[in-house]
Automatic annotation (TrEMBL), chain A:
Topology in membrane: Single-pass membrane protein
Entries under InterPro entries matching the protein: ATP8_mammal (IPR039017), ATP8_metazoa (IPR001421)
Pfam families: ATP-synt_8
Ranges that cross the membrane: 6-26
Keywords on record: Acetylation, ATP synthesis, CF(0), Hydrogen ion transport, Ion transport, Membrane, Mitochondrion, Transmembrane, Transmembrane helix, Transport
Localization, UniProt: Mitochondrion membrane
Protein name stated in the entry: ATP synthase complex subunit 8
Entry similarity comment: Belongs to the ATPase protein 8 family.
Cellular component aspect of the GO annotation: mitochondrial membrane; proton-transporting ATP synthase complex
PANTHER family associated with the record: ATP SYNTHASE PROTEIN 8
Main location: mitochondrion
Gene that specifies this protein: ATP8
Gene Ontology biological process terms, A to Z: proton motive force-driven ATP synthesis
MF terms in GO: proton transmembrane transporter activity
Lineage: Eukaryota, Metazoa, Chordata, Craniata, Vertebrata
From TrEMBL, chain B:
CDD domains in alphabetical order: ATP-synt_Fo_a_6
UniProt organism field: Lepus europaeus (European hare)
Protein name: ATP synthase subunit a
Location in or out of the cell: Mitochondrion inner membrane
GO CC field: mitochondrial inner membrane; proton-transporting ATP synthase complex
Complex formation: Component of the ATP synthase complex composed at least of ATP5F1A/subunit alpha, ATP5F1B/subunit beta, ATP5MC1/subunit c (homooctomer), MT-ATP6/subunit a, MT-ATP8/subunit 8, ATP5ME/subunit e, ATP5MF/subunit f, ATP5MG/subunit g, ATP5MK/subunit k, ATP5MJ/subunit j, ATP5F1C/subunit gamma, ATP5F1D/subunit delta, ATP5F1E/subunit epsilon, ATP5PF/subunit F6, ATP5PB/subunit b, ATP5PD/subunit d, ATP5PO/subunit OSCP.
Similarity remark: Belongs to the ATPase A chain family.
Amino acid sequence: MPQLDTSTWLVTIIAMILMLFILIQLKFHKYSYPLSPAPKTFKSTSFPTPWETKWTKIYSPLLLPQQ
Amino acid sequence: MNENLFSSFITPTMMGLPIVILIIMFPTLLFPTPTRLINNRLVSAQQWLAQLILKQMMMMHSPKGRTWALMLISLIMFIGSTNLLGLLPHSFTPTTQLSMNLGMAIPLWAGAVITGFRYKTKASLAHFLPQGTPVPLIPMLVIIETISLFIQPMALAVRLTANITAGHLLMHLIGGAALALISISPTTALITFIILILLTILEFAVALIQAYVFTLLVSLYLHDNT
């Protein structure tokens, strides 16, 4: 049975080790598995000034003095 | 006849140069590296397949076991692609070589067992004695469990080698028989040809299943030890 001819075993094993543990893993570690696109909530980095945190009623259009 | 039958399993060398190296490295070319955010169809399909396999396989492992994810996905893709390429006519299948399968099975099994010894020494030693054994049977059972532990890598390697080799040999034999029967009795040749087609379909399944079984068992040994 030619599989039991040990003269070729070293070459085969070294080629396999090179292939399996290095080459193929270099290919597969670049795979990315992105999640499906979905809207992401983000915290705003600009903060409202103190007079903008409270809506002051006097500036509503209907309450301005009628022209 | 023996010489002719087994000639496809001789490690290929061309004028003394071992081209088996090129044959083993060939499946790498079939998996292009993804370089874009949105890739072409081939790469996307392979990524999808890899994700499917990974989710299925890694679900049962602890976080420690999941560090082996890259190794296991590389293993199953390598064995699967090598086996499938071996179904082409006149091709050489590296997984028929016992040397390669031993070289795959022993380090992976040893890695799993040694990981178990390092991190969960008591639990991994406890595997040698199943629960609820009667006291007089303990020595014999420890011996049996030790033997069954050490036979795991051998069984992994020989299972893969024997399955793929046997499938290829059967295809050779039945194909040769169909060819020889054409001149004697075409009906029998047709029946033999249909058997050959069914066998080829089986071999496709076997190619994939063997890859799966190998990886699954390694994953199981890992689960026991993490």
